[in-house]
Design goal:
Elements lengths: L1 E10 L5 H10 L4 E5 L5 H6 L1 H18 L15 H25 L3 E4 L2 E3 L4 E4 L3 E10 L3 E3 L11 E2 L1 H4 L8 E5 L3 H13 L2 E5 L11 H13 L3 E3 L3 E7 L4 E7 L2 E7 L1 E4 L3 E3 L6 H4 L22 E3 L10 H15 L12 E4 L4 E6 L2 H6 L4 E7 L4 H5 L6 E7 L5 E8 L2 H13 L4 H6 L9 H11 L11 H8 L1
Helix pairs in contact: 1-9, 3-4, 3-6
């Protein structure tokens, strides 16, 4: 048995774990990361990065096919999925190697293996290693939820397998209309699959602003994606050639035939098999680790970050939590504030949000003003042939403080950063409206939405003024 001693040890090398390990070292603590697979975790190896690479490729395929409308004649576009997978894997390998170099450069020891708490002072790591530390950080992430009767296996995919297919399936059924299902479903539809999405809730992307979701739903229809909402999957039959999925909506029953079924009905925390009970760490009924604003668990020297502590399950949330924990352990006064936490869905068009939606702000007691500006009135959006969607800004009527921003449209994932910065700085709508934005750019839509909310709109007609929007939101 080998004994290793550290100031702090991190279980998991994903976007929470590796950031925690590096930041601890930068703050002068001797740190280690225990990872059973590859550095980067789900996000880098089988999640965020590979999915966005394939989504980017599919978007290029679609853009080439749409080039005719701009006077560009290319002809038939072919997709070599094996080469696309090689390209995607190359990106992943490069980033994994980069994290390893960062750990080495910061003198963070990376231990390969599976860890389990012996008590709140020691970990037992596979391979005959005992890790003793003053502080521990659990950053073990999450895994896809399996449904009884729809278990992963022959012809039934989780997101991990769906990102590794060596062929574009002619027919793909997707069980779950959340962000993962729609991202991957849209990607395969653009590459040539006939996609059918089944969602049991009353809208796709449950929890998002219905007005935002409608834009994405309309675009899905343009990609010939069939969607079923308020629909349950009741039976699955598999064969070596495909699947038959029985669905039910009210009294109506139907059967979907496809080559594969992608199941994306949520994720569950990787909190089991860690020996948390023996260490005294409390979890909720779903297995999520309970933490305070400093990410401290029920045991004073054990912390947890990322998916394992609950929603929203976002890589950037995990990284920020990791930075806070490292600072707390180093004795700095730090805690989490999620007020300006953005979220992005890489559908077509993209969705990005930060802060509160209109109804959420009203539920918190705010009288709201809403400003909305369509990308159809934005010169840059028209010039790049992507004019679906809008920017929507929610203000407190009295203070004009920005309560939240929702964007559905081109490059929403990048545009939301300006809104997040404004909220982090406590900006009001006038700050955003008075900021001179370069023309022609997509970012002008944020400025214009603020002007709409303030009643100063120039590039939309007066019926879109704040007075009308206030009357509909009160």
């Amino acid at each position: 048995m080998t004994m290793k001693q550290f100031d702090a040890a991190v279980i998991g090398g994903g976007p929470g774990g590796y950031v925690a390990g590096i930041r601890l070292a930068q703050l002068g603590l001797k740190s280690a990361i225990i990872e059973k697979n590859r550095l980067g975790g789900v996000c880098l190896t089988v999640g965020c990065i590979p999915s966005k690479a394939l989504i980017s490729a599919s978007k290029l395929v679609e853009a080439i096919r749409r080039g005719e409308s701009m006077g560009i004649n290319v002809g038939a576009v072919g997709v070599d999925m094996r080469r696309m997978q090689q390209w995607k894997n190359g990106i992943v390998d490069k980033l994994v190697g980069g994290i390893a170099s960062l750990c080495k450069g910061n003198k963070v020891e990376v231990i390969q293996g599976t860890a389990r708490f012996k008590n709140n002072e020691e970990l037992e790591v596979s391979g005959g290693i005992t890790v003793r530390a003053k502080h521990f950080i659990v950053a073990t992430g999450s895994r896809p939820v399996q449904l009884k009767g729809f278990e992963f296996g022959e012809r039934v995919l989780s997101s991990t397998e769906a990102l590794a297919l060596s062929e574009v399936p002619p027919r793909l059924a997707v069980l779950g209309g959340g962000y993962i299902g729609l991202e991957l479903g849209t990607m395969y539809a653009k590459l040539g699959s006939r996609v059918t999405v089944v969602e049991m809730m009353d809208q796709l992307l449950p929890g998002f602003d219905p007005e935002v979701v409608r834009v994405v739903a309309q675009k899905l229809r343009k990609h010939n994606v069939t969607t079923h909402v308020k629909t349950k999957a009741t039976k699955l039959e598999r064969s070596k050639d495909g699947i038959q999925l029985t669905i039910q909506s009210g009294d109506k029953t139907d059967v979907i035939e496809a080559d594969y079924l992608l199941v994306t009905v949520g994720r569950r925390p990787n909190s089991d098999n860690l020996g948390l009970d023996g260490a005294g760490v409390k979890v909720d009924t779903q297995g999520f680790i309970l933490v305070d604003k400093q990410m401290r668990t029920s045991v004073g020297n054990i912390y947890a970050v990322g998916d394992v502590v609950g929603n929203p399950m976002l890589a950037h949330k995990a990284s920020k939590e990791a930075e806070v924990v490292a600072e707390v352990i180093a004795g700095r006064p730090s805690e989490l504030d999620y007020r300006a936490l953005p979220a992005v869905v890489f559908t077509d068009p993209e969705i990005a949000t930060v802060g509160l939606g209109e109804k959420e702000a009203q539920a918190e007691g705010h009288r709201t003003i809403v400003g909305k500006f369509p990308f159809a009135a934005n010169g840059r959006a028209l010039s790049v042939n992507e004019s679906d969607g809008f920017v929507k800004i929610v203000l407190d009527e009295n203070t004009k403080e920005i309560m939240g921003v929702q964007i559905v449209g081109p490059d929403a994932s990048d545009l939301i950063a300006e809104a997040a910065l404004g909220m982090e700085m406590g900006s009001d709508a006038e700050d955003l409206a008075l900021t001179i934005h370069a023309h022609p750019t997509l970012s002008e839509a944020l400025m214009e939405a603020a002007k709409v909310a303030l009643g100063d709109a120039v590039h939309v007609l007066k019926p879109m003024s704040s007075e009308r929007l206030r009357s509909t939101s009160s």
